[in-house]
Amino acid sequence: MASVSRTSEGNHPSFWGTFWTNAVFAPRTTLGFMRVDFVLGTVFVIPMTQMVFFAFVVRLGGGGASEIAYTAIGNAVATVTYSSVFSVCQTTDQEKNQATLEHLLVSPANRLALYMGRGLIPILISFCTVAVGLTYAALFFGVTIVPGTIPTIAVSIILTAFAMVGFGLLLGGVALYLRTSIILGNIFLFVGLLLSGVNFPLSSLPLAFQYAGDALPLTWGIAAIRASIAGDPIGTVSILWFAVVLSALASYGAAIGLWRVFERRALVTGSIARF
Amino acid sequence: MALPTTHVSRARSTSASFRLSILQFLADPQWLIPSMIAPIIFGLVSFELFRSAGPYYLTYAILGAGMMSMWGQTLYGSGWATGQDRTWGTLEPTIQSPTPYLYVVLGRVLWNVVSGLIGGGIVYLVVVAVAGGPPSLPNPVGFVLLFLFVMVSLAAVGVVFAAFYVYTRYAGFIQNIGEFAFYVGTGCMFPVVLLPFWAGPIALIFPPTWALDALRYNSIPGYTGFSWGYSWDLVGAVATTAAYAAVAGSIFHRVERHVLEEGSLDEY
Amino acid sequence: MATERYAVETRGITRVFESRKGFLFREKTRTEALKGVDLAVESGSIFGLLGPNGAGKTTLTKILSTLLIPTGGRAEVLGHDVVAEAEWLRPRIGLVLGGERGLYNRINAKDNLRYFADLYGVPVAERERRIDEVLARVDLSWAAERRVEEYSRGMKQKLHIARGILHRPQILFLDEPTIGLDPKSARETRKLIRSLVGDGVSIFLTTHYMFEAEELCRDIAVLTKGRVVAHDSVPGLRHLVGGDRTLEAESHGFDDREVESLRHLPGVSKVVSEEYGPWLRLTLRVRTSETTPDDVRGALPGHPDLMVRERQTSLEDVYLDLVEEEAA
Prior knowledge:
Chain B is mainly alpha-helical. Chain B is about 75% helix and about 0% strand. Chain C has helices at about 55-65, 85-90, 110-120, 125-135, 155-165, 185-200, 210-215, 235-240, 255-265, 295-300, 315-325; strands at about 5-20, 25-40, 45-50, 70-75, 80, 95, 170-175, 200-205, 220-225, 225-230, 245-250, 270-275, 280-285, 305-310. In chain C, strand 7 (about 170-175), helix 6 (about 185-200) and strand 8 (about 200-205) form a beta-alpha-beta unit.
């Protein structure tokens, strides 16, 4: 898998070699999702259809232009789940199906480089997906985006994409033990719609739901992007950025830890080969 | 050893496929989690969005979320199982058997109808619990009958969609991309008449669009759906469902022929 | 029971694979897997199809078992066209593709077999008895209730075979049936294959194991680069490559003049030299008994370390000769 440099003690894959190989090679081999035409579909079609769907639901529920704009922003950001959580989860499933996971797990490659590398392209696609979604929001759903706020919005999107990919890696780690991680991907796709302030403010939910929502990176990502669009002071946005980064680090840290635990557990139970 | 082989009963093939679906589900019951969570969340989201919009919007929320759940189970579940056949390499021996693959899909669709009904029931219970009481239904018997018919219409679409999974290994990805477009186009959460006029003819290709409109006419007093009203909705629903059922055999025959020509059965 | 003389008959079968890649599937690649295959396989026999990887064996097997439509030509199985009469043929064909895939791993062996028994229309009253019978025949009764995902590769291979014979086909296509099996299981599988022929089943076998083909098959065809380059009985194939007998001479080196002198010995049809380690080996295919090891020694004087051996030409020799000739 990884690029290698020969030493007298054998082959030792370098950190950056492993990172780069996994960033470029792994998505191409394991994800039909990464076909250019499908990526374009994810980036351009999913945000529009999801936003249209919820905009009509809001309209039927008696919502006006401001409610529709609110929903449009939430769903533009929520579509990041497809290109981050789903795609990263799928890598593990595909590795299982193609019987390449065992080879991966016995390789001497640095795990951090391996998993971080796999997140690179999903981060880029996630960024594009949210950016396109917000463009739709501005063009068709009455969301006002002031040019001066674009740099802040861009930073918010990058951090959200980074955090969501970390979350996908975390779920992908659980997939080592389960038969498939797509189940978890599905669950969090739906949970995000309810608990992350996508369609209505989190504050309208019971307190327990609000706490649960706070644990999701998507919640902080959406809040940061909403604040950026609203032109909130940089101090306010920075606090939300900090929360996104914190949730990202927690996700990546937990992902690496979980991968280690489940690697060992999967080797003991033999669940690697199950799919 | 070689004896004349008996005729393969279609009903037996369908029931074998139904049984296999149950066995697969029992072997991997973790699928129960998303199939329960999805309808609950759809129910809660739609209830929250419809909360302040009048008494009958509770029915809207239940119908919409229930339909989305059943759509997922019936439509995607059947195709997904065919996609898994590809991944597991079981599509080839199944196609090679004397049973037309249509009947294998039919068995899976039946199972998905059952699990979709369970999902719909869960939505009902959750939303009723959150709302503090059941919605008022002016015609409960008609509601139940129409609800069952909606399931039949979904199954008809599910069978035809499953052919797409036989046709190409990319069906799952394409369907994911088109998921919300289907929800919009068939008006599972809101009346299709809200959509721009050009979307209407596309929506009418799908039997559930008609059946759902009829179901709303039946359940929501003052509902404004298609201008032709309840009776013609029923006629349209029956006609489109019958059309789907009629063409399913031919579609599967052509798709099977196509994949045998392409040699793409073992691709995953 | 098949009453036709030929269980399989093909005329000019071609198969081209076109795959599309890239943006909106616009790039097309074209691979010609079969280039006009003519074959006739007698009913009630075991026929072996040999060939290197990528020769087109699995493609031909899939065409004959109705899983693939040929691009050109015509193929009949049990006297019926594999395309136009696929529906008639499918209940009468057994197919064993083998490998790790192709089974429902999450359920047990019996449930796998029950499912396919239903799809093949095995009489309900006989179903359980037949499942027990085929599991016993492949020595899997002891694991019948275990999930397939817990099976070893060899056990899965046996289950593939059990499924292939469950509906009592008139012809059985076996694509490398003993791959992944331990020697004992492989031997039992070969015994099973022979017993199926005794029951009147025609067998179409592809294998990479030459001894297996030699042991089981009455007729053998060698397929390479999509063409049948030979089709005969094992003795007939030996004759085709230049002799029943093979003489091998080994030393530290031979010059061209010595090699040439061997070619002129009576009955020698072919001399091939190959290096291995410090040794050079000359292999001679000999048609008659006129040339003996002593004649070879006589033709190669001045080699104190010379070793000459005589043996019967094996199917492996025949196969390698044919494949190498085709490659050349």
